[in-house]
UniProtKB/TrEMBL annotation:
The chain crosses the membrane at residues 42-61, 67-87, 120-140, 152-177. It comes from Epilithonimonas xixisoli. This is Uncharacterized protein. Keywords: Membrane, Transmembrane, Transmembrane helix.
């Protein structure tokens, strides 16, 4: 009998309820979240405009047919990869605009989403490694052979160009993420840490 009473009390009690975030903390969090959303919109629309511009420039640039075809295929493939990553990006964008971000648990979940999206961001840049290598091969193969370079020299130039290009992509990507998102995510982490105390 007493066990049944305990069971019914246990079922009635909502243990998932977490403390609400004060309106002051919500206002402090609003600015970095809104900046992240604004930067996400900017990044999305700049990419949507940039890819067709690249294709148009390629079409009107007087290039040999095969070179033009290879570059177009690479750009279209990049657009497909970018579309995949933007679907992940859009989920986070919707999560940020969720009005139910009023509990500490929902903010912890949002921070986890930010961490996942940082990994997606790194994966996005790494996914361009094969495209970059293919572009370098196409450029080297399409260069007019006015001078006869040794295979060793071409290998050194190719590997040096790829290493330099990939290093630049990595550092630019990390700086871009930190400037556009990282500093705002750090502010949110700091507010969450303050709320845990």
């Amino acid at each position: 009998m007493e066990l049944d009473n305990l069971k019914s009390l246990w079922n009635k009690e909502d243990v998932s309820e977490t403390p609400e975030i004060s309106p002051e903390k919500q206002r402090q969090m609003h600015h970095p979240l809104e900046r992240i959303r604004k930067n996400m919109r900017y990044e999305f629309w700049s990419t949507v405009v940039l890819l067709p511009v690249i294709l148009i420039v390629i079409w009107f640039f007087p290039l040999p047919f095969r070179f033009n075809l290879y570059i177009e295929i690479l750009v279209i493939s990049m657009a497909l990869v970018t579309t995949f990553f933007f679907t992940k990006f859009f989920k986070l964008y919707k999560e940020i605009s969720n009005p139910a971000l009023g509990t500490l648990d929902s903010l912890k979940d949002l921070l986890h989403q930010f961490e996942l999206n940082k990994q997606y961001y790194v994966s996005f840049y790494l996914s361009f490694v094969p495209f970059f290598v293919c572009e370098m091969i196409i450029i080297l193969e399409s260069m007019p052979q006015t001078h006869h370079y040794s295979d060793t020299m071409l290998t050194i130039v190719f590997l040096g160009s790829v290493a330099f290009g990939l290093t630049m992509v990595y550092f630019i990507g990390m700086a871009w993420f930190k400037n556009f998102y990282g500093k705002y995510i750090d502010r949110i982490k700091k507010l969450v840490e303050e709320m845990k105390k």
